[in-house]
Amino acid sequence: MLLNSIFPAVFIALSLFTRSTISTPVSPATRQLNPPTPPTLHHVFSGDVNLTPSIISIPGPFGVRVSGGFTGGSLTDYQHNAFATVVADQGAENGIVDGNSNLHIDARITIQFADNKYAYMQFQGVGILSQENHFFVKIEADTSSTYASLNGMFLIGHSIIANGVLSFDIFSPTQPTW
């Protein structure tokens, strides 16, 4: 009975509150006068990952799937300190090269931090094989690691593959602090 008498009042209060706090979309004319500001990005880390000597290409209905592995590598943090190594043979790069020569990246790497804890990294994005690629990164780090704050960071990056090495730089709107 109490719930029946309180619910309408709570519903009305929430309706009024949400209506007064939701912002109105900006009109195109206003946007032209005040263009959106891109977010500030902070360098978080960089890496150089050694690739397996051969990449397998498999033609399929969506394009040519490319697949390769990782044999090792190292990562340096935003202060240029070595903070992780790539665990060999624990991940793979897969992607599809579509009819327009776009590489749709889907790669996974396991890393070991300097504190001996592990993390899983997943890269997804788009680019062109052997040219600069852009992607976002998802990290699942051991929660007891010094670097566990990476779990809650939005990360984006760019990379290039040259001479059997995948080199990348990772950025975030959040300043790293470890």
Care to describe what's here?
This protein has helices spanning 2-21, 28-33, and strands at 42-51, 56-60, 63-77, 82-97, 103-113, 118-127, 133-141, 155-162, 165-172. With 178 residues, it is mostly beta strands. An 8-stranded antiparallel barrel has the order 1-3-4-5-6-7-8-9.
Summed up:
With 178 residues, this protein is mainly β. It contains two helices and nine strands.
Number of strands: 9
Distance between the termini: 53 Å
What strand line-up does the widest sheet have? 1-3-4-5-6-7-8-9
Main sheet: strands, sense, barrel: 8 strands, antiparallel, barrel
Overall mean pLDDT stands at 85
Order of helices and strands: HHEEEEEEEEE
Assembly state of the chains shown: single chain
- DSSP helix count? 2
Rg over CA atoms = 22 Å
Helix content: 10-25%
Question: Quick one: overall form?
Answer: flat
Structural class: mainly beta
